[in-house]
Amino acid sequence: MKRIYQAFFVLLFTVFALSGCSDSKTPQEGDQYSVIPTPMPEMKGVTEIFSLSCGHCRKMESILPEIKKLTKSDIKQVHVIFNESAQKAAFIFYAAMVQTDNKPSHALVEQLFSYVQDSPKDMSVEQRKTAVDKIFHDNNLKSPYELTEAQQKEVFKMFQRSEEIVRNTALESVPAFLVNGKYLVNTSAHKSLQDLANTIDYLKNKQ
Predict the structure, then answer these.
(1) In this predicted model, what pLDDT tens digit does every residue of 69-109 receive, in sequence order?
(2) In this structure, are residues 159 and 94 in contact, taking their beta carbons and an 8 Å threshold?
């Protein structure tokens, strides 16, 4: 009888031990996040990598203020330039960046999302230019077509930086969060906003 009880408690301990491991809330490399091929240690903090032409990125933008609140982070943004369409979108986003100290308002970014995603496909080049001009002027900013030479150079540097980040992260899809220039968060592996915030917080403090 004593041996039966001993065997029972050994089994019970094993079950609890295994369940404890499987229920761990610590984000796991290869699941909730990955280490990028070429780390960029100078990129401290949290950076969202996105595109104005991406529907999922637009949804992420709507909850970005809450993510900032939950993680107590000033989340920076980088626009990808995967293709010609993304390059055009990046141009207007970075035109806003250089005029707002790299912090365009949430409302302005949503207007840019709407312009890129909701504009009629048959708009002429002149109509598109007029629409862009209006967005910027309504926000007391110069149109992307009115930037000074110095501002154009800053936009070009942002393009170069975007290319470098995409290359070093081997990024294939957006939206994505890069933490401390080393850890790429797998957003689809999280079940809730709090879950995502927990991973970001964990990586902010990880060496």
Answers:
(1) 999 999 999 999 988 888 999 999 999 999 999 999 999 99
(2) yes
- The 8-class DSSP code of residue 10 comes to H
First-to-final CA distance of the chain: 51
**Dist. CA 206–CA 180, nearest whole Å:** 9
pTM of the model: 0.84
Taking alpha carbons only, the member of 155, 149, 77 closest to residue 110 is 77
Dist. CA 59–CA 179, nearest whole Å: 20
Q: Look-up: residue for tokens 């943004």?
A: 77
Is the four-CA dihedral 105, 111, 117, 122 of positive or negative sign? negative
Average pLDDT over residues 149-162: 96
Contact 79, 51 (CB under 8 A): yes
- Is the peptide bond between 37 and the residue preceding it cis, with omega within 30 degrees of 0? no
* Residue 192 CB neighbours (<10 A): 8
Per residue in 101-138, pLDDT (tens digit) is 999 999 999 999 999 999 999 999 999 999 999 999 99
Nearest of 164, 176, 162, 59 to residue 109 by alpha carbon:
59
3-state secondary structure of 29: strand
Beta-carbon count within 10 A of 72 CB: 9
- 3-class SS at 104? coil
**CA–CA separation, 96 and 156 (whole Å):** 13
